[in-house]
Structure formats: C-alpha cells, structure tokens
Amino acid sequence: MRTADPYKAQHRRRQILGAAVECFARHGFHATSTAQICAAAGMSPGNLFHYFPSKAAIIAAIAEQEQDNMLRLFERWSAAEDALGAIEELALAMMALSSDPLQARISIEVAAEATRNPQVGALFAANEAQVKAGLAVLLERGMAAGQVDPQLDPGKAAVWLVALTEGAIARVVLEPGFKAREHQPMLRQIIRRFLRPQPLEPG
Amino acid sequence: MRTADPYKAQHRRRQILGAAVECFARHGFHATSTAQICAAAGMSPGNLFHYFPSKAAIIAAIAEQEQDNMLRLFERWSAAEDALGAIEELALAMMALSSDPLQARISIEVAAEATRNPQVGALFAANEAQVKAGLAVLLERGMAAGQVDPQLDPGKAAVWLVALTEGAIARVVLEPGFKAREHQPMLRQIIRRFLRPQPLEPG
C-alpha cells in the first residue's frame, strides 16, 4: 500500500499539472491523450491515475489553479488605499500573468472548455463572479473617494474591466510579436480615461 | 459524372458549413467527427467530401466566412465622414455579430484553432492585420479632424480596440445572461473616453 507523504504528493500533482499544461497548450484538451500526459510527466498511467482519476480531473485542477492565482491577486490589492490605482495594478497583473504564452493558451482552452463542460463551466463562473464582485467593491470605494466617475454602474464597469483584460490575454495568444510590457501604459491609460470622473462629459 | 451547377453547389456548401458550425460550437473542432457533420447536414460522407475534402477544409472555410463578415463591415464604415463615430459603430457591429452565442463560440474555437493549426493561423493573422490597418486609418483620419487624441499611437490604439471587441465576444460566450444590447452604451463610452482629445490630461 502507498504511504501518504503530503509533500511528495503535492510535488507529484504539480509535476503532472505542469506536464498537462504543456500538452494541452500544444494540442488542446480534446486532442491530448492521458498517454501523452504520462509521457510528458515521465509517469506510468497507474501512477498518474493515483493522483488524478481522469483527464477531466486534471482539467478541473488547472481551472482551480487559475482561480487561486486570481484570488491571490485580489488579496494583494483589494485593501489598497488607492482604489483606482489598485484596479489598474490588478488589470496589469492579470495581463502579466498571461504574458506567458503557455498560460494564455491555457486560459483560452479553459474558456472554450467552460462553454462545453458543466464542471469547468461552474468553476469558471464562480471565479468570474468573484473577480467581478471584487472589482465592483474597488469601483465603489473609488467613487466614494472621488477617483471614479460616480455615474458609472459599478457592476457593468466591472464586466468591461474583465472584458478588457480578457482581450489582452487574447492578444498575447493571437498576435505574433505582441509584447505585453510595451502595451502596459496604454492599458493603464484606457482604464484611467474610462473610469475617472468626467467634469466636461460632452453630449 | 457530376454536373456543376454553381448555384446548387454554393447552396450545398452553405448547408454543410451551417451544420458544421452547430456541431463545432457544441463539441469543439477536435471532438467533432465528419460523421456527425454528415448526419447534421443530412448528407452521405461521399457527398460531403465532394464539397470539402477534409474537416480541416471545413474549418478553413468557416475562418474565411468570419473574414468576409469583417471585411463587409469595414467596407460599410471606412468611408464614413465621422471617423470616430465609424470606429464606435464598427465595434458595436462586431459585438452585435457575436451576440449570437453560436457565432461567438465559433469565434473562440477559431481563435483556439489558430494557435495550433498553421493554415487557420495564417487566415486569422491576415484577417486581424486587415482589421487593425483599417482601424489605424480611421484613427488617423479622426486625429486629422480633431476627433481623436493625436498623442495616441494609431497602431497600438487599433490593437486595443480589437482587444476590447474580443473581450466583448468572450463575455457573450462566458457570461450567462450577458445581453450585448444592454452593454452597447458602455462600450461606446469606453471607446469615446479612450480616444477623444484630452484637454486636461492629468500628470
């Protein structure tokens, strides 16, 4: 019988997920076989199935990792004094996370899978709801502090901040030669111009 | 031997593409078999292969259809007197095109496939290059007319306009209950606030 060494088990799980991410990014979820993941991880199928009973379980674990990354970002920024600055930093950090093309391709795979696989869809929806709620809280704090246009609907504005960062992730994957770092100033500019109070809003 | 009736052939091709789009949106490109497409189109494999020699050829035809839709939009708006208004209308029209969830899912499938399949990738890149060049021309016209902030880099701003509309497409697919129509005013607002001349740009 296997003895449970929690440290070793966690290390193994990470090793499998790393190998799976490489395979999925290259071939997509559906075209990747568990045999390919085993080969990339240097493990036997029996060993792999000890940690993840199915390919679906690996995909769900990757979606959970994405959620954890996002929550850690929010923990870091949600208490910042400067709410508008925190929103900008969050958007830049999300773009930086995805400036690794492997990570960005996996984000698109997870998104595509979320539309087809109810388990991944539920994880994805929960993740998104948390991100949008967190952004809406920051927007409301920014409004109270006079940094954010109080005429904006915080819920709707949060949706568009998410859309903007997703668009940035899509650029990393789809645009050959897109350098996230070069585009950071313009992302900051779009967010600032969109959110700040508009003293002279025309028409 | 088959006789070539161009009208009938075009009708058949459309019929196959419509059936394929439904299958792909539901299962993804890789998990869809040509047998499923035949069944959905009500055709024998021999008949289907007469029009499309492979699943890859069907995928390429769908990517070409997307490109045609985009080019038609540009033909309609690129000569408009009001360049800033034309940019807003283009973005809204792209969001409207993708407010059909089937179409939006196919857009994400094509994007994911573009990262893996060089033929689709080349089509996709050509499409994108044309869209960005068209937007940059409109931005420059808007700058000359005093409608668009002349300090913006037209090429970079075009990239972010594309990112914004891609983000909107992602919302249609990924956000249960997202109503494109309700979000049109905010998309217009983001674009306008981002692009217009900034008389009082702070620090």
Automatic annotation (TrEMBL), chains A, B:
PROSITE patterns: HTH_TETR_2. Residues 10-70 form the HTH tetR-type domain. It comes from the Bacteria. It holds the Pfam family TetR_N. Transmembrane segments: none annotated. Residues 33-52 bind DNA. PANTHER family: HTH-TYPE TRANSCRIPTIONAL REGULATOR PKSA, HTH-TYPE TRANSCRIPTIONAL REGULATOR RUTR. This is TetR/AcrR family transcriptional regulator. The lineage of its organism: Bacteria, Pseudomonadati, Pseudomonadota, Gammaproteobacteria, Pseudomonadales.
